[in-house]
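Saturday, quiet lab. Running sequence design on the structure tokens for the scaffold JK sent over.
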């Protein structure tokens, strides 16, 4: 996967109806340009964190939980796993609430 394809894959995740809805519920007075700018800045900041978190996985080919095991030990990986699982479940529920499957 080239750099442009990688960029567009992550950009596609940021530009979704759920992202716009979440932002408009937090700050309802934003117009479309302001909301788009806020989303772009937020995606950029989150992208930096994702790049830093994924650097070892990209370089050595190891998943996040293997990285967490080296930092927290076998028993300590429950906390990072939970920190990743809870937002994923909440976001899945939010996306399901926005557009239920038919």
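Result came back. Writing it out in full:
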């Amino acid at each position: 996967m080239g750099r442009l394809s990688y960029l567009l894959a992550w950009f596609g995740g940021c530009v979704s109806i759920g992202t716009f809805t979440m932002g408009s519920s937090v700050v309802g007075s934003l117009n479309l340009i302001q909301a788009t700018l806020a989303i772009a800045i937020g995606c950029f900041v989150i992208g930096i964190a994702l790049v830093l978190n994924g650097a070892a996985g990209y370089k050595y080919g190891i998943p996040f939980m293997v990285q967490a095991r080296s930092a927290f030990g076998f028993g300590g990986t429950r906390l990072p796993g939970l920190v990743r699982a809870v937002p994923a479940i909440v976001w899945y529920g939010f996306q399901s609430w926005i557009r239920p499957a038919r």
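Notes for JK: Residues 32-60 form the longest helix (29 residues). The CA atoms of residues 36 and 47 lie 16 Å apart. Ask whether to fix the surface positions before the next round.
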